[in-house]
Write a structure and sequence with these properties.
Layout: E1 7-13, E2 16-26, E3 29-34, E4 39-43, E5 47-54, H1 60-79, H2 83-90, E6 96-97, H3 99-106, H4 114-127, E7 131-134, E8 137-140, H5 143-174, H6 188-203, H7 210-219, H8 227-234, H9 244-248, H10 257-268, E9 277-278, E10 285-288, E11 297-304, E12 307-315, H11 326-334, E13 338-340, E14 343-345, H12 350-356, E15 364-374, E16 380-391, E17 394-397, H13 398-407, H14 409-427, E18 437-443, E19 447-453, H15 457-479, E20 486-488, H16 504-511, E21 518-520, H17 544-559, H18 566-599, E22 606-614, E23 618-623, E24 628-633, E25 645-654, E26 659-664
Parallel strand pairs: 9-16, 10-17
Antiparallel strand pairs: 1-2, 1-5, 2-3, 3-4, 6-8, 7-8, 11-12, 12-15, 13-14, 15-16, 18-19, 20-21, 22-23, 22-25, 23-24, 25-26
Helix pairs in contact: 1-4, 3-4, 5-6, 10-12, 13-14, 14-15
Length: 670
C-alpha cells in the first residue's frame, strides 16, 4: 500500500521502536522524519504499523512535538497490556491473528484507535514469548514453545545478573579499594565465576566456559592473557606457582577415603612369616637420600670364594595387596609416584609407602630377595630369587656409602663389580649416556635455586644392582613362562658414540637419537641397557609395573602359579601407560616452569651455551647451566660448528606463560 505524506508509521531500528511521519518518497523508499528529529529512508517492508491518521501541516518543531506525543502515548498503552493473559484467552482459538483483532481483545474500551494497535505490536515484540509478529500478523506460540522461551528468558536474566556480579567482583579485585573482600564463597554468582575461570585456565579454548569468561574480562577491560589466572591468585584461591598440569591430567595428591581406609587396614595387619627364609641376622642396609621415606630396596654383600654374593632385597608389598582392592586399583590408576621439585604425589598412601612397607631400620619386613654370585671379573655364576624375612640394620646416605667405597673393602669390591657389569652390558650395545642431573631447590630468601650434580659411586652402584635384579626377574619370568610385561627399546635411530662415552656434549647429542621404549607382553631386546629381556620389579611402592611383576614372582614362588593372566596384564598395561604418560608430561612441564622462573632473574645476563645442531636458518644450542636446548637465529655470513662454545642473552622469559626468548650476546665469536 502507498503511504501518504504526513502519515504516521512505526518501525524498529537496533531493537528500538521509532514513530515517524512520511515526508516524501523516492523510488520504493519513503523519506521519514522520526520522533527524535532524524530523517531516514526506508522501504515499506520495514514498517511494523501504518496509521491511517495524518499529522496536519505545521512547522518542523510542531511535527516533532506531535510525533513524540504519539510515541509516548503508545508506550503508556503498551504497559497496560497483559500479554500472558491475552495468550491464555486466544491460545485454543486459532494460530494467526491480525493486530486489529488482538487489539480489540487486549483493551476493554470502546474508543480503540491506531495507537492501541501499535501498542499491541510493541508489547508482542518486546515480550517475544507468547506471540510472534511476522509479516504484519501475530502468531500464537504453542504451549511447548512458550515454556521453552520462558526458560530461555529466565536463563538469560540469570546470565545478565551473574555477569553484573562478576564485573563488580573483578572491579573489587583489580580496583584500588582497600579492605576489600576478594572472595565470598557463599555468593553463588561469584562461586560460579571462580569455577568457570578455573576451568578456562586449565582447559583454555576447550573449556565450555571459554567464551563466557573471555567476555567477562573483555567487558571489565582486563584483556591481558594471564589476567584470569592472576585473578585467582589475587583472591588466594590459587598460588602463584599453581600447578595447572595436575588439574589438566586430573592428578590428585590426596587419596579417596576408601583407599585411605584400606591402607589403614593393611598397615594394621600382622606380618605373616610362614614360608619366608629368615635373614633377620644378615647385615642388610639401605642407601638413599636423607629425604627419602619410601624405601623399597636394600642390599647385602657377602664374600663368596673369590667373588661376592649380592643380595638385592625388595619390600614384598605385592604379596599383601589383592587385585581389585581399593589400594591396588588406585596404584594401577596412578601408575607411578610423581616427584616434582615442590611436591611429591605418592602412588600409594604414605602410611604404606613410608611406614608399614618401607624398609625402615630395625623393622622386620617381608621381602623378595635376589641373590647373585659374581666372580672377581663380574661374571654371573648363579642367581636365585627367594621370599624372605629381613631386618635393615643400617640406613646409609649416598655420602656414607661413597665414603665406604673410598675406604676399600667389600663396598669397594661391590662397586668395582658394578662397573664390570655395566662394561659387559656396554659390550652388548648398552648406551648409559650419563649427563649431570638438574636439581631444583627452594630458598626462602633466594627463591628457586638450580644446580647440576653428577651421581657419585654409591648412586651408580645402587642403579647398576637394581638393573641386575630387574634383569634376573625378567629372565626368571621368561624361562618359567610366567605371564609378564617387559620393557623394550629398539636400537637408536643413529649411534654416534660408543657406550663408554662420558663427554656431556656427545651424550646429549646421542640422547636426541634414542628410540622410544615400550611395554610389551613378550621379552624383546632393551638396546639402551644391552639386555635381551628386561622388566622392573625393584620399586613396588613407587611404580605400578614393579608391583604387578612382584606379584607374579611372589605368587609363582609361593604356590607355583602366577596371580595375573596375560589378558589381565594387557588391560592393566594400557592403564599403566596412560598414567605414566601423564606423570611424564607433568614432571617435564613442572621442571621447565621452575627453570624458567630461575631464568627470570637472569634477563640480559650472558650465559654459557654450546651448539648442539645447526639448520638452514636456526642454531640449536644448549644452556650449560640448565642443559636446556634453545633456538637462535643464524646470522648472515656467520659459520657455526658442532660443540662450539657460545654466549647468549635471555631477552624475554615468563615461566607462567612458558615463554623463553634468547639471542646472541654482542661480541660472541661465530
Amino acid at each position: 500500500m502507498d503511504v501518504a505524506n504526513n502519515q504516521v508509521v512505526e518501525f524498529l531500528e537496533n531493537q528500538r521502536f521509532f514513530t515517524a511521519m512520511c515526508i516524501g518518497k523516492k523510488g520504493n523508499r519513503y523519506h521519514l522524519l522520526t520522533h527524535l528529529g532524524r530523517e531516514m529512508n526506508l522501504p515499506e517492508t520495514r514498517f511494523l504499523h501504518v496509521s491511517p491518521q495524518r499529522i496536519k501541516t505545521a512547522t518542523r518543531n510542531e511535527y516533532l512535538q506531535e510525533l513524540r506525543s504519539i510515541f509516548a502515548k503508545r508506550d503508556i498503552l503498551k504497559t497496560a497490556i497483559n500479554i500472558p493473559e491475552l495468550w491464555e484467552l486466544v491460545r485454543d482459538d486459532r494460530e494467526i491473528w491480525s493486530p486489529t483483532e488482538l487489539t480489540g481483545l487486549a483493551f476493554n474500551v470502546e474508543d480503540i484507535g491506531p495507537d492501541h494497535e501499535a501498542a499491541v505490536i510493541r508489547a508482542v515484540i518486546d515480550e517475544h514469548v507468547h506471540f510472534k509478529f511476522r509479516d504484519g500478523m501475530i502468531a500464537v506460540q504453542t504451549a511447548e514453545n512458550v515454556g521453552r522461551l520462558l526458560e530461555q528468558k529466565m536463563l538469560e536474566k540469570e546470565r545478565l545478573e551473574r555477569l553484573s556480579a562478576g564485573l563488580g567482583w573483578l572491579n573489587t579485585i583489580w580496583g584500588d579499594a582497600k579492605d576489600k573482600l576478594l572472595y565470598d564463597a557463599k555468593d553463588p554468582d561469584i562461586s560460579y565465576w571462580v569455577e568457570a575461570i578455573k576451568d578456562f585456565c586449565i582447559k583454555g579454548e576447550e573449556s565450555g566456559y571459554a567464551a563466557e569468561v573471555k567476555g567477562l574480562f573483555k567487558q571489565a577491560g582486563l584483556n591481558r592473557p594471564m589476567v584470569p589466572f592472576y585473578t585467582l591468585v589475587k583472591t588466594g584461591i590459587w598460588g602463584e606457582d599453581e600447578n595447572l598440569e595436575l588439574y589438566r591430567f586430573d592428578i590428585k595428591a590426596d587419596f579417596p577415603r576408601s583407599v585411605i581406609n584400606h591402607a589403614m587396614e593393611l598397615a594394621r595387619s600382622t606380618l605373616d612369616t610362614k614360608g619366608l627364609r629368615d635373614l633377620t641376622e644378615t647385615c642388610i642396609f639401605t642407601i638413599d637420600g636423607p629425604e627419602t621415606t619410601d624405601i623399597d630396596d636394600a642390599l647385602s654383600f657377602e664374600r663368596c670364594g673369590n667373588g661376592l654374593e649380592l643380595g638385592i632385597h625388595i619390600t614384598n608389598f605385592g604379596a599383601k595387596i589383592d587385585p581389585g582392592s581399593p589400594v591396588f586399583e588406585e596404584a594401577l590408576s596412578r601408575a607411578t609416584s610423581i616427584y616434582l621439585p615442590d611436591l611429591t604425589i605418592p602412588m600409594i598412601p604414605d602410611i604404606l609407602s613410608s611406614n608399614a612397607f618401607s624398609l625402615n631400620k630395625n623393622e622386620p619386613r617381608a621381602a623378595l630377595s635376589f641373590f647373585v654370585k659374581l666372580d672377581k671379573n663380574g661374571t654371573i655364576l648363579e642367581t636365585n630369587i627367594e621370599r624372605t624375612l629381613i631386618r635393615v640394620s643400617n640406613r646409609m646416605s649416598y655420602e656414607d656409602a661413597d665414603s665406604e667405597i673410598e675406604k676399600g673393602g667389600i663396598f669397594s669390591e661391590a662397586y668395582q663389580l658394578a662397573r664390570m657389569l655395566q662394561s659387559a652390558r656396554i659390550e652388548k650395545g648398552a648406551l648409559p649416556l650419563p649427563i649431570p642431573e638438574l636439581v631444583i631447590r627452594f630458598d626462602s630468601e633466594k627463591g628457586v635455586m638450580i644446580k647440576l650434580t653428577n651421581p657419585g659411586p654409591a648412586r651408580f652402584l645402587v642403579a647398576e644392582y637394581m638393573i641386575l635384579a630387574n634383569r634376573i626377574a625378567a629372565e626368571f619370568l621368561r624361562d618359567n613362562f610366567i605371564p609378564a610385561l617387559y620393557r623394550s627399546q629398539p636400537p637408536p635411530r643413529e649411534q654416534i658414540i660408543s657406550g663408554a662415552e662420558t663427554d656431556i656434549k656427545a651424550n646429549f647429542r646421542q640422547r636426541r637419537l634414542i628410540s622410544k621404549g615400550g611395554l610389551v607382553k613378550k621379552p624383546e631386546a632393551h638396546h639402551g641397557l644391552g639386555l635381551a629381556a628386561y622388566t622392573t620389579v625393584t620399586s613396588p611402592l613407587r611404580r605400578g609395573l614393579d608391583l604387578l611383576m612382584q606379584q607374579q614372582l611372589d605368587s609363582f614362588l609361593r604356590c607355583g602359579s602366577p596371580l595375573h593372566d596375560i589378558e589381565g596384564l594387557e588391560k592393566m598395561s594400557a592403564t599403566l601407560q596412560h598414567g605414566l604418560a601423564a606423570a611424564s608430561a607433568i614432571k617435564q612441564t613442572r621442571m621447565r616452569y621452575f627453570v624458567l622462573k630461575h631464568m627470570e632473574g637472569r634477563i640480559n645476563m650472558p650465559l654459557d651455551a654450546w651448539i648442539l645442531d645447526t639448520g638452514p636458518h636456526k642454531v640449536v644450542a644448549v644452556l650449560s647451566d640448565y642443559l636446556m636446548p634453545v633456538e637462535l637465529p643464524k646470522r648472515p655470513g656467520s659459520t657455526y660448528s658442532m660443540d662450539q662454545d657460545i654466549k647468549i642473552n635471555i631477552k624475554k622469559v615468563n615461566a607462567r606463560e612458558n615463554i623463553l626468548k634468547v639471542d646472541w650476546c654482542n661480541g660472541t665469536r661465530h
